[in-house]
Amino acid sequence: MSTKTKHILDILEAGTHPDAHLSMHQNVLIVDDVSFNLTFLETVLEQDGVHILKASSGEEAITTLQHNEVSLIIMDVMMPGLSGYQTASIIRSNEKTKYIPIIFVTAADRNDCSFEGYQSGAVDILYKPVAPEILRSKVNIFLELDKQRQLIKQQSEALKSALEQLQHYAQHDQLTGLFNRDQIYRILEKLIAGSARNRTVMALLFLDLDHFKHINDSLGHDVGDQLLKSVAKRICSVLRESDFVARLGGDEFAVILNNLESRNAAGLVAQKIIDQLVVPHVLTEHEILVSCSIGIAFYDENYENSSDMLKAADSAMYQAKRKGRSQYAFYSADLEEQAIRRLELARALNEAIDKNELSIYYQPQLNTKDGRIVGLEALMRWQLNGEWIGPYEFIPIAEESGLIPKLGEWMLVNSCKQIKAWQDAGVFAANVRVAVNISNRQLQAGNFLDILQRALTQSGITPKCLELELTESAVMHDPDNTISLFNEIHKMGIDIAVDDFGTGYSSLSYLRKLPIDTLKIDRSFVQDIDVDANDEAIVNAIIGLAHHLGLQVVAEGVETEKQRKHLLSQGCDILQGYLFSRPLPAEQVPALAQSLNPPTKN
Ligand code: C2E
Ligand code: CA
Ligand code: CA
After folding, report:
1. Does 364 sit behind a cis peptide bond, omega within 30 degrees of 0 on the bond before it?
2. Which residue owns the Cα nearest ligand 1 atom 27?
3. H or E element: which one contains 75?
4. CA of 89 to the centre of ligand 2 (A)
5. Rounded Cα distance, 442 and 395, in Å
6. Of the residues 153, 181, 581, 589, which has the maximum number of CB atoms within 10 A of its CB?
7. Is 437 in the pocket of ligand 1 (CB under 6 A)?
8. Ligand that lies nearest to the alpha carbon of residue 403, given by its number in the listed order
9. Would the CB of 502 count as within 6 Å of ligand 1?
10. pTM higher than 0.90 for the full model?
11. Nearest C-alpha to atom 22 of ligand 1 is from which residue?
12. What pLDDT was estimated at residue 477?
């Protein structure tokens, strides 16, 4: 049984237990100005263990009622001061006492006062002299009725509280106490209706923690839960009273910002949440760092219902993740189109090899000393129904959709075969090599070494003629793991280049430990050598560093003579860029080789 079911059953049990009434304490108030009468009534009723309260006037009776719970009143009619009837009227007009049954005791004739007695609120009238048996029997009946009434009251209170609990459970997330998915949908639905009328800005934030799964897997669900609670608190701390926040499930949260002054304000709140969350979370045994990505959708007439709006915010959240996490992004319909295009491209890319849509272009890398081609970078090209799709668009899609190992293997095998064919045909000397880009996902796929071996075997090239280009961020992502893999690759005789160097965060100690051969200075630094003194300094420093570590330096993206000269003056080893050649389809490479590598005398 879940704890919440048990809780509700406990509440109901307490209210409806058959013994619940045993603890009831019932008072009978007797009111008479003659003390003998009071004693008489008391003596009779005490036989049944009834608890008696006494009052010798109407006024005293009313005071007693104010301070005690009374189940039944037995009252004399004729009293100095307030008469019995007058007292009864006052009792009836009071909220607290109006339902207490009153039995009148009167010495009057049976026929002349009964009507007035009942009118003033009597439930029964006893005539003096009162027969003790009749009195006891009537009192017992009324007390029993009172017990039943109290029991019903208790039960209905228990039911009410159980229902309230149920309602709370139905609307809230148990872990964080925030609203749950269903409830935020309902709230959103109501606000959408209101927002359409008010013309105020309403924003929906869709928030997802970055890499939460990793925390859950490595530190356990308890820590994960503690973190989610802490996140919930932090989110709430930046919101206003009029905002709503829910946990949608897992590590997803939604925030509704209501009545905003402007759209900009939503971005400010999102940034505040991001800033709040990155402050380390101190949990019982751990201090944890998390970040989140937030997608923002604004209410406008385009949304038919709450789930449309939530979808829009969700898709903006993915955009924020793609931008690099710990960011927020606004939803736009363009973005939706992009998402659809990505899905379609992923589907098409899956069939691209079989449909012969992929090809490889080659861009030469030149030795600075003599200007001869020493290598070629292999770059993937994709033509889909006559349209060229750029690698900057399809490579990330291939990575996200898990297609990169398959495409990468195709690249490796075919570029190795191509360089071998050129070597065999005398287009290039036997030491000219091919550089193939390897995505981190491909590297981590588990069977990467087997694939490398297969590419070597199938093509028959010497391992020295293959160089792998890995981006700096991929290499530094998990350097301890990478070292052993790189050692294996090196043992096979294959060279490794660190691509896009300068754009990531390299640790110098790792650079020293990693078995690498080449640093490729990122295009962005090369491009601005002429204009930006900082970039010039960076390029010079990278060349110096590389040489110090015994590594070769390649500068990519060389477009101008000025850049070439500068790189030359700094001692850069190899140049690559449009200045020499754009990447070319395989069939155009022999002619290029002819012009750049004229046959030497030896
Ligand atoms: P990258 O590895 O940095 O490749 C160099 C990119 O710079 C190529 O873009 C190339 O065409 C371009 N480039 C070369 N010289 C110049 C120049 O002088 N000026 C300018 N502006 N650009 C120049 P491309 O072919 O569009 O490839 C883009 C990126 O796609 C590559 O960047 C690489 O990260 C990725 N990529 C391409 N093919 C593959 C592949 O087979 N596998 C993997 N994993 N990634 C690939
Ligand atoms: Ca590259
Ligand atoms: Ca590069």
Report:
1. no
2. 391
3. strand 72-76
4. 98
5. 12
6. 589
7. yes
8. 1
9. no
10. no
11. 557
12. 79
